[in-house]
Design brief:
By secondary structure, the protein is α/β, with parallel strands linked by helices. It is built from 23 helices and 30 strands.
């Protein structure tokens, strides 16, 4: 049965639970930890213990198997070794259980993927109507209803971290660390899902459940590899349409990180930039690290780009201004009325943005409220960021009261705690939903993420039809004519190349000669053939092209990512491709605005517009190539690279093309 058709309610809010493999509380086994948590939090569900080795456990009857229970439990916790786990699942299915969590490892992780045990479990899960979490998970923790069906460390605490965030993680070990960060930010959970190997239920299924959960307001996810990326983005769209932002941290951004992730979950890991681009398209926020993943939820809001900075420390004000500019914000000068209002109150320092209120604010408790009011009324500012210092309680309380008063006037405010105190140390600010950060850079990264977020996912329009042209049709329109040396008939200088299967970096290998006079083409071809033999190359051919007119050289192309799907790439090309490494990527297909945005995401955009007196180039023609490539990639899943695509003052020329592994 398709996981999307399964009801996850019995996993999250079961009326009865069986713990198969239960062992005495206080021991050092999984069955002990799971049982201890259920008892500690006085779980409201009917609780049944199953282990043939015991007649009683924790003053409760212990049954030899699931078939001996007085009723079929809705949820079965499978805490037995992998070799016995499938038999327990079969028993659960036979008695009518609706859900199970398989904690056992040893199925599809690492080099066990495709093992007989893994394949047997996959076959069972493909047919069962039960909703099954795992295997290799540490469980599902329903914090609101106090149902800790698992044993992550945060579930072993005396109090569960209740809040409004739904958490989904492909790493069970990471969740408790994330929860500690969230707690420091004054945030808690509705439900925490540890996906495990995700053979039956995947990240997308849990996101979809949370999208429909009335108690969940935001969804936070840690993902590594998605083998159902389309379903994940569809689920995220459901959440966004329900007014629930989705925030994701993805492991495997570097080659080394991707290797670690593959070893962890045994799954394909796609290109991070492609994944992040598709997230932006769907209004999903992406975090760069664990601290940002935990901080982004508290920063939810509409933040403008023009920032007013103030603090009682010039150093702190300067640090905040630096971080603001580094993250794409403006720190504009104050208007005349604001400058005058501040000048009337300040006896030290200069009224400006960023504003240093100096030591005067330590003795004059009315200065901070007056400064906040003046800057809050400044029409040239969108948001205020206040740098909080260590000081006497009276001074801190005065600043907090002033911040609260200004927030009540509708001024968006964020606070930087210079001593690094967490948000929970400022309970009044927390209650007023004023975010507090212990890092200036983290503060502005979070504000920037929300400010740039697309609030709506792509519209659910009907299937699109794309032009029926092939990649070859497109290349025929824009490629420089190519012929054999003996067939070259132009009287202009030529480019002579040696082509072969998978031959990249031909210039570096000495396999290209440029500006060759027509009478010298035969000699150039002979030199290139000799060079090819020297390198041990086979199945090569010499071709000649007319030298293309000068222009801005781009690299453009398509790729099919295992997670992001068909994508279009563009950036600075030619000899600068690897030196500059300035390439952007976007999911296919593209509209005209998407294509121009892709060009503007790299330095190529500025060059096309005419840089330092250079003439502008035909950016529209370049954008149309990207659109056509995107349509072809979306329809045919074709991979190709054009490098360089020379953009002239009028028109474009594709000079070198790689289709799959074939050069042309």
């Amino acid at each position: 049965m398709s996981p999307s058709a399964k009801d996850l309610t019995p996993l999250v809010r079961p009326r009865s639970i069986a713990v198969v493999g239960a062992t005495p509380p206080g021991g050092n086994k999984l069955g002990s930890w799971a049982l201890s948590n259920l008892l500690k939090h006085n779980v409201s569900a009917d609780l049944y213990l199953v282990n043939p080795r015991y007649e009683t456990l924790a003053d409760r009857p212990c049954y030899p198997d699931l078939g001996s229970l007085p009723e079929p439990p809705e949820l079965v916790l499978v805490l037995v070794p992998a070799a016995a786990a499938i038999d327990v699942l079969r028993q659960a299915e036979a008695i009518g259980s609706k859900a199970a969590i398989v904690f056992s490892g040893g199925f599809g992780e690492g080099d066990r993927a495709g093992s007989p045990l893994d394949l047997e479990l996959q076959a069972f899960l493909a047919d069962t109507s039960m909703a099954v979490c795992g295997p290799n998970t540490n469980g599902i923790i329903n914090c609101v209803d106090r149902i800790p069906a698992g044993f992550p460390p945060y579930a072993m605490a005396d109090e569960l971290p209740v809040g409004t965030l739904g958490v989904v993680s492909q790493s069970g070990a990471l969740v408790s660390s994330l929860v500690e960060h969230l707690r420091g930010n004054g945030l808690g959970l509705t439900v925490g899902f540890a996906v495990g190997n995700g053979i039956d239920l995947k990240v997308s299924d849990y996101v979809r459940f949370l999208a429909g959960d009335d108690r969940t307001e935001q969804i936070v996810a840690y993902v590594e590899g998605l083998d159902d990326a389309d379903r994940f983005f569809d689920a995220a769209d459901e959440a966004t349409r329900a007014g629930k932002p989705v925030i994701v941290l993805k492991g495997g951004r570097s080659p080394e990180g991707a290797d670690a992730v593959r070893g962890h979950i045994g799954a394909l890991v796609g290109d991070y930039d492609a994944f992040a681009a598709r997230c932006r398209q769907h209004g999903i926020l992406t975090a760069h690290d664990l601290a940002e993943l935990a901080a982004l939820p508290m920063a939810q809001g509409q933040w403008g780009k023009r920032v007013g900075v103030l603090s009682s420390s010039g150093a702190v004000a300067g640090i905040l201004a630096d971080s603001a500019r580094h993250n794409g914000f403006e720190v504009p000068p104050l208007g005349g009325a604001t400058h005058s209002a501040l000048a009337e109150r300040m006896t030290l320092g200069e009224p400006r943005n960023p504003l240093d209120l100096t030591g005067q604010s330590v003795v004059d408790f009315d200065l901070m409220p007056a400064a906040l009011e003046a800057m809050g009324n400044e029409p040239g500012l969108d948001v205020l960021v206040h740098g909080m210092l260590i000081g006497p309680d009276r001074s801190i309380n005065s600043q907090v009261d002033a911040l609260l008063a200004q927030t009540e006037q509708g001024t968006p405010i964020a606070v930087f705690s210079a001593p690094g105190w967490p948000a929970v140390d400022y309970p009044k600010l927390l209650e007023a939903s004023i975010p507090v950060f212990g890092s200036a850079d983290l503060l502005f990264r979070c504000l920037a993420a929300w400010q740039k977020r697309m609030p709506q996912p792509p519209s659910a329009e009907g299937p699109r039809t794309w032009p029926e042209e092939s990649l070859e049709d497109l290349l025929a329109d824009i490629s420089a004519p190519t012929c054999a040396p003996a067939e070259y008939s132009d009287d202009q200088p030529a480019a002579v190349k040696l082509l072969g299967e998978g031959l990249d970096h031909k210039t570096d290998l000495g396999l290209v000669e440029l500006n060759v006079a027509p009478e010298d083409i035969a000699d150039a071809a002979a030199r290139l053939e000799a060079r090819g033999k020297e390198l041990g190359l086979a199945d090569t051919a010499v071709v000649v092209q007319s030298m293309a007119d000068p222009g801005v050289e781009l690299i453009v192309g398509t790729k099919v990512d295992p997670e992001a799907g068909p994508c279009v790439v563009a950036g600075l090309g030619g000899m600068f491709t690897e030196l500059v490494d300035d390439v952007a990527i976007a999911p296919a297909p593209l509209g005209l605005a998407d294509a121009h945005a892709l060009l503007d995401a790299t330095k190529a955009g500025a060059l096309l517009d005419g840089y330092r007196g250079e003439p502008g180039r035909d950016r529209q023609a370049a954008a149309e190539v990207l659109i056509r490539l995107g349509h072809i990639a979306a329809r045919d899943h074709t991979e190709a690279e054009i490098n360089p695509l020379i953009v002239h003052t009028s028109g474009v020329t594709a000079v070198d093309v790689l289709i799959g592994s074939r050069r042309s």
